[in-house]
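User: Teach me something about this protein's shape.
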Amino acid sequence: MKAVTDAGAVTEFDATVRIDTPTEWNYYRHGGILPYVLRELAKLGIAT
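Assistant: First, the predicted structure itself:
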């Protein structure tokens, strides 16, 4: 991860991801909840 303060100072650190459910895995695999939901809506023909 990289965190940047308002003053521009940068701090980098490692983070561990915890995935507990198949749904969380799908969100992670699709790059987050929003991309996942939009892809699902597109499959149904709801989102363009």
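Now, about its shape. Residues 19 and 25 are 6 Å apart (CA to CA). DSSP finds two helices and two strands in the chain. If you'd like, I can walk through any region in more detail.
User: That's plenty for now, thanks!
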